[in-house]
Amino acid sequence: MASSTRVSRELRSGHAESRVKGDTAAAGGRRIPAHAVCDAIRDDIVSGVYPFGGRLTEELLARRYGVSRVPVREALRTLESEGFVTTRRHAGACVAEPSEQEAADLLEMRALLEPLGAARAAQRRTEAHLKVLRGLVRLGRERARQGQHADLRPLDGWFHETLAQASGSPSLVALLTQVRRKIAWVYAAPQPPSTAELWSRRGAIVDAVARGDAERARTLMAAHAELPPPDGYRLRRPAAVRNPKQTVNISRARN
């Protein structure tokens, strides 16, 4: 998830300066990777730029991201397969509207997948993974003690992303990434804990992973995954579209 966030940030760093032909940017003539268009639309859906049920027209999307309609069409098909987009009769592509049950299912899926990921990480992690995980725990504890709440949310994401990668299972990483991304989409962003207790729990998980104790890592992560945020889980309410017609400079996205 962190990588898509970085891409999204780069996409929003400026406006498209010229029209494009096909899927090649006029500025510099660089070919725009289709996955970058998909990432950009997905990030805007997750962040609420396009609200639940909002229409997604190829022409407007192509203009916003500075590409032709071909990569937009491909992106919409991918996002529909992922559950972010749905096709309605007489309306075309629209942002999906997950039900409360579907939203609750996401939390249950995360509670099942994260302990599995921790157990696999205990069996397959590398020293590089451990170094990053320990560094994140240290930073998390420091920021929590100092009350630097703005830093805690990205640290949380990086911790879970690194732990998933340490599992050595690309399929599991993809599933966890998708589930966490959808949770961020359907639930309002929770307030991060203001104490270092949560990061101490994560430190214990990392210790179990370092020892190769898969069952201990699984147990600790299961307990960790069941902890609700301080303000609970609140479903997002439909909101007005925020500048959906504003153009985005997608030509600066990394290949």
From TrEMBL:
UniProt cross-references to Gene3D superfamilies, sorted A to Z: GntR ligand-binding domain-like, Winged helix-like DNA-binding domain superfamily/Winged helix DNA-binding domain
Keyword flag Isomerase: no
Signal peptide: none
Ranges for domain HTH gntR-type: 31-98
Assigned keywords, A-Z: DNA-binding, Transcription, Transcription regulation
Region (Disordered): 1-27
Pfam families given in the database record: FCD (PF07729), GntR (PF00392)
Compositionally biased intervals (Basic and acidic residues): 7-22
Superkingdom as given in the UniProt entry: Bacteria
Keyword Magnesium (UniProt): no
InterPro entries membership: GntR_C, TF_FadR/GntR_C, Tscrpt_reg_HTH_GntR, WH-like_DNA-bd_sf, WH_DNA-bd_sf
Protein name from the UniProt record: GntR family transcriptional regulator
Source organism (scientific name): Streptomyces lycii
